């Protein structure tokens, strides 16, 4: 779909949504970023995945990548509270080992790969700076953490400062802490917002996810356009 037709479709779908909802969409689009993304590798508990999705939405992070080598992506709506409607979940599950392809893709997109690990880390979260960097934050499975491949491919290994006897946090708690810290750091800088074309694509998705029978409404609109 070309940009002109996409804009026309968005304007048409807007007529099915309240003015208040459209104002909310506009406000949230201006707070969204793709300069930070979460990457979950083989997380197996659906509540942890769903909590991470919810945290990403809460802190304005638009994309979350799910690497599915051993465990499939399953959501728990009672935990995510519908957050999956507002962010892009990109699944990497086409091969036996999807870690390399996911990280390679993110590096090609200009992301610095930050692996979270309590062992042999290079830096603490509080010392991590987002200036002029796009950051992909990797978190691993509940028991074993990130794979050796993910750790080897990472640019930096990072840990969260802790002061008690326990050496690690629940994966969803780690995700929330990191999202909150990095999001706050990012918003003190320039050039973190979405481009206008990105906003258009996301707004279209939000409208589709909001409007009842949006698929039929869109098909009717496109069929009408194709007659001319």
Main attributes?
228 residues, alpha/beta, Alpha/beta knot, 7-stranded parallel sheet
Task: Summarize this structure briefly.
This protein has 228 residues and is α/β, with parallel strands linked by helices. It is 44% helix and 15% strand.
Report on this model:
- With 228 residues, the protein is an alpha/beta fold.
- It has a single domain, classed as Alpha/beta knot.
- The protein contains 9 helices and 7 strands; from the N terminus they run ααβαβαβαβββαβααα.
- Strands 3-2-1-6-4-7-5 form a 7-stranded parallel beta sheet, sandwiched between helices.
> What's the domain count?
1
Determine the N-to-C terminus distance: 16 Å
Gross morphology: elongated
Number of helical regions: 9
Average pLDDT rating: 91
For the record, what is the CATH homologous superfamily label?
SPOUT methyltransferase, trefoil knot domain
pLDDT < 50 runs, ≥5 residues: none
Which fold does the CATH topology refer to?
Answer: Alpha/beta knot
Largest sheet, order of strands side by side? 3-2-1-6-4-7-5
Give the biggest sheet.
7 strands, parallel
Number of strand segments: 7
Write the layout of secondary structure elements.
Blueprint: H1 3-14, H2 19-29, E1 36-41, H3 46-58, E2 63-67, H4 77-80, E3 88-92, H5 99-108, E4 111-116, E5 123-124, E6 134-139, H6 148-153, E7 156-159, H7 171-186, H8 196-210, H9 214-226
Parallel strand pairs: 1-2, 1-6, 2-3, 4-6, 4-7, 5-7
Helix pairs in contact: 1-8, 3-7
